[in-house]
Design a protein that fits this description.
The chain is mostly helical and about 90 residues long. It has helices at about 5-20, 25-45, 50-75.
Length: about 90
């Protein structure tokens, strides 16, 4: 099994992902991974409690992503599309 990278190495890897793809996209990917893990656990391990924890993690990441996305729109940087957490009529202009 491959050794886990040290914390500094992991931070560098995450920083590179953010630099290359943007924080919002990295957060979206993390939320999707959490949802996939929840589905896998529910399907293969029938551990509903653990699956709920992964689902909650996905929701929290999505909520944080939405705050950042909407905050950028309020500062004059419009989101590329309507944030999933807001109905279209609530998108700041």
């Amino acid at each position: 099994m491959e050794k886990m990278p040290m914390r500094d190495e992991l931070n560098e890897l995450v920083e590179t992902l953010i630099d290359d793809h943007g924080l919002l996209n990295v957060m979206e990917a993390a939320a999707e991974i959490c949802r996939d893990k929840a589905d896998h656990i529910r399907t293969n391990w029938q551990d509903r409690e653990l699956a709920k924890r992964w689902d909650r993690a996905a929701k929290k990441i999505e909520a944080m992503r939405c705050v950042l996305e909407v905050g950028g729109a309020k500062r004059g940087n419009p989101p590329q599309e309507t944030p999933a957490c807001l109905p279209s009529e609530e998108v700041p202009s």
